[in-house]
Amino acid sequence: MGFAREASPSSTGTQRVSLKDIADELGISQTAVSFAINDRPGVSAETKRRVKEAAAKLGWTPVYAAQALGSSKSMTIGFAPARSAQGLTDETFMLHFMAGVHTSLSPKGYGLLYRPCRSLNEEMSVYRDWASRKRVDGVILVDLRADDPRPKLLKELGVRAVLAGGPDPNNYVPSLSIDDSRTMGTVLEHLSSLGHRRIAYLSGDSNLDYSQGRVSAFRSFAKRRKLESINIEFTNFDAEQAAMLTLEMLRSPKPPTAFIYETEILAAASLHAMAEAYTTGQLKTGEGQSAGYPNGLPAIVSFEDSFICEAAYPSITSAHRDASEYGAKVAKLLLKVLAGEQVSGNRRILTPKLVVRDSTAKPCNSCGI
């Protein structure tokens, strides 16, 4: 029935108020108290009101372990992204996203079970394990891929889930997505307005849905605006590789005058490599251009915003989105799914805003303009 245990010491050493205490206070049965607390049918609205008032007066709080036993719920949401723990530590967006998830789950008594995985296969094995043990009530998915098998698997396992991203082309799970194509257009409009016509995009993983969307938007813009040249490279989110590719392109006969990076980590690492190359003479400034760093730099834009972009020299122009708000909304959507509410297949939210900083300027002479 979901009864709490008899009064027991709480973490502060005081006796925990039980449902029996509330029943004794009101002179009604413990069953009636349980029904009222859990908003179940079988007791009147007046009884529910009296029970909740008494619970607040006595300082009662739910014992979620007992509640879970009574309702076959684990009161736990699973999050098992196929990313390294170090990768999540470096990427501030995901940390803020998880914090936002907590802000929606905690008031409802849910916890977040975080289990980083080394591969997509490991992630799917975790879902099978969780389903067999009824370890979680629902799952949050991220990083949708081409021909992604996870939404279908979760549907077959009977594990309810929502997708941060997408949408899921097969509609196995509902999703909340960010309009990455429009954001890419905003970034390119900004660079184009400054006169940049040779632009490079250093993406992350070519298999990720949002990376494909950004690449498609980049190509469409380049064709529509007849840009002189574009470069697209996938770095697998490796900062060292991004820096190496950046320097290689800058040494070409007609280098890009602007670089767009998937994350602030890739942008900052590449900026550091450029600074070292300019100050040591590995990259030369052009005629009529002030010598040295940072005058000869190309424009730099990051698709992620954080304190790293603000602290860099020069500060990095970036696409800002509220990751915490995004996480909170994704978690709220999952709570609606768990409550049996009807939800739409996909909603696009949080079109990021461009934060213009010192790293974007008109094309420099040293870039061959």
From TrEMBL:
SUPFAM superfamilies: lambda repressor-like DNA-binding domains, Periplasmic binding protein-like I
UniProt GO molecular function: DNA-binding transcription factor activity; transcription cis-regulatory region binding
InterPro entries: HTH_LacI, LacI/GalR-like_sensor, Lambda_DNA-bd_dom_sf, Peripla_BP_I
Top-rank taxon: Bacteria
Residue ranges the record marks as coiled coil: none
Transmembrane segments: none
Annotated keywords: DNA-binding, Transcription, Transcription regulation
Domain HTH lacI-type: start-end pairs: 17-71
PANTHER family membership: ALANINE RACEMASE, LACI-RELATED TRANSCRIPTIONAL REPRESSOR
Protein known as: Transcriptional regulator, LacI family
